[in-house]
Amino acid sequence: MKYFILEQGKGYDRNPSLKGWHGKIDWHSLKRDGQAVGKRFMFQVSATEHTFYPDIMMHPVFMVSEAVRDIIAIYANRVIFSEVFLLDSERDEGHIYYIPYLPVVDCLHDKEGGMKGRNRQYVVDESKMWNRNIVETETGGSQCIVVSLDFAESILRKGITGIGLKETE
C-alpha cells in the first residue's frame, strides 16, 4: 500500500498564534500526561484579518477540524479526541479543533539510513502499520502523521484545506 506524510501545506502560513500553550498541549507533554486524553482545552489566539484557520494544524501539536475528525473516525474508529477551543476575543470569534490520540508506530525510516531530517525521503515499514490508515510517529524529535493512500484520497475528495502530502516509498 502507498503511504504519505500528512503535513500542513506550505502556502498556509497565516495560522493563528496560540497563547499559553507551553506545557499544556505540546507533543511531549501530551505523551507524558495520559490524563489529557478526552480533556477540553481553551486558548486565546493572536490573529489578524488575514489569519487563516486550516483544517489541519501541526503546531503546537497535530490538531484537526471537525471535517477531518470525522474522516479519522471512519478510518480509525477507536481514536479518542481532545477538544481545543481557540478564542479570538478581539474579533469575537472562536474555532474548534480536535487533538486525535493516534496509535504511535515506529514505521518511518530514512531512505539513506541517516538522520531523520525534514527534506529527506522516507520509507514506511508496512509490516508495522498492521493495516492502519493513520498513525503517529516521530521524525527528528517532532510529531509526524503517516496516512494511507485511501485516507489521503478521502481528505482530498472532501476538499480539506491547508494540507500537504509528502510521498513516501
Defining key terms:
four-stranded mixed beta sheet; alpha+beta; 169 residues; 4 helices
The number of strands is 12
> Low-confidence runs (pLDDT<50, min 5 residues)?
none
Tally of DSSP helical segments: 4
Rough outline: globular
* Terminal CA distance: 10 Å
Number of domains: 1
Strand-residue fraction? 35-45%
Q: Please list the strands of the largest sheet in the order they lie side by side.
A: 10-11-1-12
> Main sheet, how many strands, which sense, barrel?
4 strands, antiparallel
Helical content band:
10-25%
Q: What would the average pLDDT be, to the nearest integer? A: 83
N to C succession of SSEs: EEHEEEHEEEEHEEHE
Category by helix and strand content: alpha+beta
- Give Rg in angstroms: 16 Å
Give a structural overview.
This protein is an alpha+beta fold. It has one domain (3-167). It has four helices and twelve strands. The strands form four sheets. Strands 10-11-1-12 form a four-stranded antiparallel β-sheet. It has a four-stranded mixed β-sheet with strand order 2-3-6-7. The longest helix has 10 residues, at 66-75. It is globular and about 50 Å long. The termini are close together. The relative contact order is 0.25. The mean pLDDT is 83.
Summarize the structure.
The chain contains four helices and twelve strands; from the N terminus they run E-E-H-E-E-E-H-E-E-E-E-H-E-E-H-E.
Set down the secondary structure blueprint.
Layout: E1 3-8, E2 17-18, H1 27-32, E3 40-46, E4 56-57, E5 63-64, H2 66-75, E6 80-88, E7 93-101, E8 108-110, E9 122-124, H3 126-129, E10 134-139, E11 142-148, H4 149-157, E12 163-167
Parallel strand pairs: 3-6
Antiparallel strand pairs: 1-11, 1-12, 2-3, 4-5, 6-7, 8-9, 10-11
